[in-house]
Amino acid sequence: MRKFVFATMVLSAIMLAACSNDSRTLEGSWLIDSAYGTPVTIADTAFITFEEGMVKVHGCNGCNRFFGPCTVENSTISLKNLATTMMVCPDAPSEAEIMKAFAEAETYSVKESNGIDKLYLYNGDKKEVLSLTYTPETK
C-alpha cells in the first residue's frame, strides 16, 4: 500500500510539473527579434545560446561575438558582465541596444504561439527589453 501511495504522489507531481506554464527551459539558441520594441538592425544573425546547465551563454549581437556567465532561476535572469569582441560594424546599429538590454534584464517569460516559442526579457520596471524566437539551428 505504501508503494502505491508513493507512486501516486510521484506521478501527480510529474503531471503538475508538465502542466506548468514555465516548464520550457531556455537551453538552446534564440534569435534576437527586437530590442526595446524596435526590430534589430544587424550585419549578421543576432542570437544567444544558453549552454547546458544554463550557467553560461554565448552568441552574436549582430556584429560582435559575446560570451559569459548567466543565472536563471524560476523567472529571474541575470546576463551581466558579458564579454564581447571589438569589431567595428557601422551597419549594425542594434548591437549596443542588445548588449544594454542583456545587462538590464531581470526577469523573463516564455510564451508559445502557433508552435513557436518566444522568449521575452524584462527590466526591473517590468518593461520588455528583448524579444527572441527559439531556433534549434543556430549555433
Write up this protein.
The protein has about 140 residues and is of the alpha+beta class. It has a single domain, classed as Lipocalin (Beta Barrel). The chain is about 20% helix and about 40% strand. Strands 1, 2, 3, 4, 5, 8, 9, 10 and 11 form a nine-stranded antiparallel beta sheet that branches. A two-stranded antiparallel sheet has the order 6-7. Strand 1 (about 30-35) and strand 2 (about 40) form a beta hairpin.
Number of helices: 2
User: Helices and strands, in N-to-C order?
Assistant: HEEEEEEEEHEEE
**How many domains is the backbone divided into?**
1
How far apart are the termini? 50 Å
Strand content: 35-45%
CATH fold naming: Lipocalin
Instruction: State the name of the first-level CATH class.
Output: Mainly Beta
Q: What would you call the shape?
A: globular
Number of strands: 11
Sum up the structure in keywords:
Lipocalin, 40% strand, two-stranded antiparallel sheet, 139 residues, alpha+beta
Please specify the SSE layout and strand pairing.
Blueprint: H1 2-18, E1 28-35, E2 38-39, E3 46-50, E4 56-61, E5 65-69, E6 71-73, E7 76-78, E8 83-84, H2 95-104, E9 107-113, E10 116-122, E11 128-135
Antiparallel strand pairs: 1-2, 1-3, 1-11, 3-4, 4-5, 5-8, 6-7, 9-10, 10-11
In short:
19% of the residues lie in helices and 40% in strands. It has 139 residues and is α+β, with helices and mostly antiparallel strands.
